[in-house]
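*Target chain*
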Amino acid sequence: MFPRTNDFEVVLEQSRHNSMLTEDRLNALYNVGQYCSSLDGDFVELGCHYGGTSFLLQSVLNLNHPLYSFDSFEGLPDLSIEDGGIHNKGELKADYDTVRSYLPDKVILYKGWVEDTLINIKDKPLSLIYIDMDLYAPTKFSINTLWNQLVKGGYMIFDDYLWEATPGVTKAVDEFFGNIFRYNHYFIHPQLGIQK
């Protein structure tokens, strides 16, 4: 579906060991990032873990735009009933100092829960919003907070849509968008992109 270029292969070598995504999903994200970098807006990543996708996304960004990357660096928060009991609190914890030293300066890294930290980018125009938080409550909060900041033509991308391990993400997306298939550009399972 998405072409694999030599430029992508170079970035892949620098990011694959810091990401849990498959190469196909990284390639899809790279291609959509290239498109979104031509729009007037910054990039946001929610749930950066060890920074592999942050590294990949910043590589395609226009020089005048930063990537705002968010993670609790405490692992997953408390789970809700919508999350199905598959994950555990504290799972997927990453080390802030390790991630900060890996990423270039144009990645602005925020440590903390999204409910507390998204205020830092309030009202900024965004051309790409990448959400990979695995759980219902932070995904729902992020959609509700950031959708209106997404510029026309920009993408909100969910890494875990219709994946059996993350039912809360699917529920949060479906609640906000209603008839999802009117909006979606399904990339590589379980990656869903919604263009505004």
In short: Strands lie at 42-46, 67-71, 107-111, 126-131, 150-158, 184-186, 192-195. The mean pLDDT is 91.
